[in-house]
Amino acid sequence: MKPQSKSNKSVVDILAKTNIDSSVIHLIEEKHRKIKEDLEQERQLYFDLANSQPTGVYRLRIPKANSVDESKFFSISDAPYIIEFANTRFCDILNVNLKEFLKSPGIINDFIFDSDREDFIQKNIEANRSLNPFIWEGRLFVRNKIIWVHFESVPRLLPNGDVVWTGVLFDITKRKKKQQEIQEKNKQLYILNAQKDKFFSIIAHDLKSPFNAIVGFSKILIEEIKSKNIEGIEKYAEIVLDSSNLAFDLLTNLMDWARSQTGRMVYEPTAVDFHELAKETVSVFTCIAKGKNIKINMDFDSKLPVCADYAMISTVLRNLISNAIKFTRNGGSVSIKAEQLAHHLKVVVSDTGVGISEAVISKLFRIDEKYSTSGTEDELGTGLGLILCKDFVEKHGGQIWVESLKDVGSSFIFTINNSRP
């Protein structure tokens, strides 16, 4: 007779004591052996099926005694569950050795990305408490990189009070990357659409307004010349000049912005003396500032060498100084400060103007937000200049922001990389 298991031997011994014919015992023994072989074959087929899956497959058991102490779910060394099965794909996704995992199943908490761990554990606790399916998506740190996974398992309550969870584990890293790419593309499309809307809005309205003024007041100016009304001629000539300056500034910004967005404006840094650049830019506003009795102060070293794109930084300064004058009351002042720091050049354009509210500040540098307001003497604007400033400053590896107090004044600050020639 072949070696028998302990339980099988007990059955045989009992049957022997009842004087049952040995042939019957042998038959029962053969059937028992056959059942055992069939069960082992089914078990192996089950393993083969599970291991052939492209997803992780696992089964764990939470003994009734452990389900009460929910603090165990937070433990790495004393987890409340026992791993009964995990296929090769499951171990591959987590990069764990099956024997180690069976011995210490709580180590999975160590793989969860720090900011996702609390959510993972709480959902485990809630699912075990309610015996509802467990579904979780999050990040794991495996093989020194972050991967995205999706867990999904269903519970079965056993008669003895234990709960068996059978589930699957998916590596969804590629899917998440695709989703992020789509989100990024959608964001870019949104910005491009906003740029298109902004462009057409400027063409349709903002650019039309100064030319309407130029045409309209030019006609009145002709009438005043005919009637030799000197005061009227001077008044309307000033209006035509102001409207022409606005149209010219707007056209300049539009052309620069269009060139920048289509890639035709190339960032070409050269050796630049910032002091000379600022002095030249300020000279453009001498007459406008004088007309509003505004003093422009420059407070920085006579030599400030920096490596920058001259045209871009000049455009940034031009727009910030123009805005400062526009929103400063008659008799106020505008100051320009610059200093070389360890890693960048910092420039501050301040005014004693009307200031900007917090609600408006958040909209200033965004192409998708329509915001424009008139100056202290009803000077018009489009908001495009600040968007252009942001674009050009970022091309220099810098940042731009604003600090302001309502009815006190504003300071527009920007930095550019301190790459000296």
UniProtKB/TrEMBL annotation:
Q: Where is the signal peptide?
A: none
What EC numbers are recorded for this enzyme? 2.7.13.3
Instruction: Tell me the superkingdom of the source.
Output: Bacteria
Asked whether the keyword Kinase is assigned, the reply is yes
Q: Which GO terms describe its molecular function?
A: histidine phosphotransfer kinase activity; phosphorelay sensor kinase activity
Pfam families found in the cross-reference section: HATPase_c (PF02518), HisKA (PF00512)
Its GO CC terms are:
plasma membrane
Which reaction(s) are listed as its catalytic activity? Answer: ATP + protein L-histidine = ADP + protein N-phospho-L-histidine
Enzyme class of the recorded protein, top EC level: transferase
Q: Which UniProt keywords apply?
A: Kinase, Phosphoprotein, Transferase
Histidine kinase domain location is 202-420
Q: Which Gene3D superfamilies match?
A: 1.10.287.130, Histidine kinase-like ATPase, C-terminal domain, PAS domain
* TM region positions: none
InterPro entries in the cross-refs = HATPase_C_sf (IPR036890), HATPase_dom (IPR003594), His_kinase_dom (IPR005467), HisK_dim/P_dom (IPR003661), HisK_dim/P_sf (IPR036097), PAS (IPR000014), PAS-like_dom_sf (IPR035965), Sig_transdc_His_kin-like_C (IPR004358)
Q: What is this protein called?
A: histidine kinase
